[in-house]
Amino acid sequence: MFFAVTVGDWLGEVENWVFAVLAIAMVYAAIRVVTTKNVVHAALFLVIALGGSAAIFLLLGAEFVAWTVVMVYIGAVIVLFLFGIMITRAPLGYETKLSHPRRVRIGAALASGALFLLIGGAMLDAFGDDPVPAAIDPTRTSDIGQSIFERFVIPFEVVSFVLLAALIGGIVIARQDPTVEEEEVLQ
Amino acid sequence: MSSPLAFVAPLILATAEEEGGHAVEHFGDGGVLAEFAWLIPVVPMVAAFAIAFFGKKSPLKGWGLAWGSMAFVAVYGVALFISNLIEGITYEGAISIGDIGTDASGHTLGLEWGWMVDGLSIMMYMVVGVVGVLVFTYAKSYMEGDIRFTWFFASFALFGGGMLVLVSAPNLIQLIVGWELVGVASYLLIGHYWEEHENSSAAIKAFLTNKVADVGLFIGAIIISLSVGSFRFTDIMEHISHGADHSTLAQYSFWAGVAIFIGAMGKSAQFPLHVWLPDAMAGPTPVSALMHAATMVTAGVYLIGRLFPFYNTPGFADDVRWIIIVIGTLTLFLTGLIALVADDIKKVLAYSTLSQLGYMMVAMGAGAYTAALFHLFTHAFFKSLLFLGAGSVIHAVHSNNMSDMGGLRKYMPQTYTTFMIGSLALAGIFPLAGFWSKDEILASIQYAGSNYTVEQGGAALANFVLVVAIAGAFVTAFYMTRAVSLTFFGKYKGHGHPHESPKMMTYPLIALAGFSVVAGWINIPGVTSFFTDGVAARFLAPGDHHATALNYGLAAVGTLAAVGGIVVGYFLWFADKDTQQERDKFRIPVLYPLLEHKYFIDDFYMDGIVRPLRGPVARAVDWFNGHVIDLVINGAGVLSVRLGKIVYWFDQRGVDGAINASAAAAGGTGGMLRLLQTGRIQQYAFLIVAGTVALVAGFIIF
Amino acid sequence: MIINQFLLLGAALFSIGVYGVLSRRNAVLVLLSVELMLAAVNINMVAFDRLNQDVMAGGQVFALFIIAVAAAEVGIGIAIVLLIFRNRRSANVDELDLMKL
User: Fold this and answer.
1) Are C81 and A84 an interchain contact pair (Cβ–Cβ within 8 Å)?
2) Does residue B680 sit at the C interface (CB-CB below 8 Å)?
3) Per CATH, is A7-134 categorized as 1.25.40.20?
């Protein structure tokens, strides 16, 4: 009822094949992230999901964002997660207690399913089959740079300040205070 | 703009909504200077509140703010005065605040905040500003060490603001607001030393006497604005300019004129409502100089001047003028005589002020708008000079009484010189300011006496009045000679060692002395007419008569009277310095007790009005208290005992039961809700998500 | 390509992320799920940016900002988890019920 285009028409475009493959892979990876019983696997599945989102960005012609996702998320954030996992000495093998009991999981599934229906329904109702003039004209990185440093320069400064605060805060929180004996040794 | 916001709008934007701004032909509109004249009342007003709230913490304890605001007014006033002399300014700015309804003939009565910039108000701006800034300078030194120093300047700045609101008012409502503001400031400042009961009762007396008169002002304002259909002076003047034949105002104008004049009598302390002014000398001397000599007490004269065409146009209130003349004459002569017997130097000056206000009123009554205002103008300078000089003396000898002074000429040369100049100016000696203004009043009375008919407002009385006015000039010179002799000559009779006041106090004296010399020169008949042209810049021409040439005969008579007063005073008090004190106690059988008791007017008010009323009223209140109120209270007591018993039963059974039940209910609910509070973040997050989904879904569906 | 395919993908990822946040016990895994939600938001941002053909590329710029803030969030989050682990020898969220006190 929402679509005028048929599935056949939709599959007529090559990009949509690519999209379908990516979407299926991403949703699968995402589900594995939240259900797997191995912590390291969860982090690696997140890599797949985020890599898929980078590919989606390429599909949409947002090249700069795509490569930023690859570098920041896959390059840095995931490494950080793996470090966190190692340091907290979470079991590397299969472990059953990573999730809450079944009762809680069913409740969470119902809530998130309802959320999906709500958002999806609202989106379908609002946008129907509006086309995206996507890959026709990829956004140039220079345009984004210009936009950041002209139109969005104050948010940019704020974000850099947030990063600085996070840097300092992370050090302050995670730093282990030396014990009395260690201090004596240091002196 | 009929919201409360409109009230603050003028503070933000000068010309938010100008409805005025129209200029009469052959007068300018004053340009930017007039457009921003709303600052004149606003700046001291803001300063007053700023001092009251933050003054104590500021380095100069608030004096700086007060002085700065007055200096601003002075500079602005002088600038306006000069540009008014170059080209007459008539400008009216107004911001609408709201409508208070419609009158019988369909006019909408609009409330407005506005600022009038014409010859009359410009003259007052300048007087208030210039005298104000000099008095404020003086007051810093005079009030040094006072425990309520900051509060004094807050009230004083409030007075400045209120006076300027009054002067700048383009409508009757704003005028009344300013009128009452100066009344409040006057109350606060007269009672500044409230620790002594005498001072606070003087403040109350001033306030109540003014209130009696204010009733007149209110009635007059109501009659005028309802019959014209507007509070605005320009509308009232336009109404008057159409003539009396088809005017609704003309039918009631006699009573309206009398009522307005009663209001003016209160503020300008005319006989027999003058009793508050001598008592008002209980306030600090700078207050007496600025308010009770130069500005506030001239508000009544200003009011008559503002409505002058109403009193001067045939068919309107021109038949009130004989009342004004009679009252003015009584004031000028009778109060001048009291000044002869007062021992308190400030009271001498206060009675002198009353007498001079009488002159102004007489001139207004005789249809001499310019002469009255000119005397107001010059009087403001020399009388504030005299007050400040008296303050300087009081500062030195720590007493108000002239019997504690004497011989101060040697100790206080600057005060002596300036006081002398002020006295001569007040006495009307050529060529000082008082000579010119008093002469102009005499000339206008003479003109009224010889040219006006009985139909033209009974000004034919004027020939008799002229004689009294000349006699008044004699008396003025006489009592000033006495005051100068007893204060500055003879032997020092006080205690301690008097000394000259600091420069902060003598410099304003010198400046005012300068003004007292030259202020008269701007309006020499036949030579200069700056002042006449200046105050004539009105939307409706005042249409008064003013002399175009000096009447040498009258001037000679006036001067002769003044010189005569000085000579007689000289022989009485000055000739033998050592015995002047004894001769001051010299008494004339009937007259002296009469004067000493101030014609028994205060006693009459006290014994004839206040006490008789107070007794029965007090007894009535007492009876009411003893019978009605006590009965009610006793009944209530019995009733509440009965009620109490019932309530007790109800309380034990009903209320306690309900309270226990509700406590149990609350406890039960809490016990159940307690289970919800697990402290687990994810459970909270789950509830948030589920709640959000439910809410949004609800909003979408319904 | 229609806009809704991206939006629905975003919605699916977001809901899966919410599920993860609600159902996981391990704090690191909760943070991983939050990353998933942020990625979903980014997809929506870029998709809307393309739909509106924004000259200033506002959607993409804000996707970049979100990435930056997410990086900061992960840094702080991991630090907090580390601190908790150090003090309690456990990274399980359901053992952190101090909010009840």
Assistant:
1) yes
2) yes
3) no
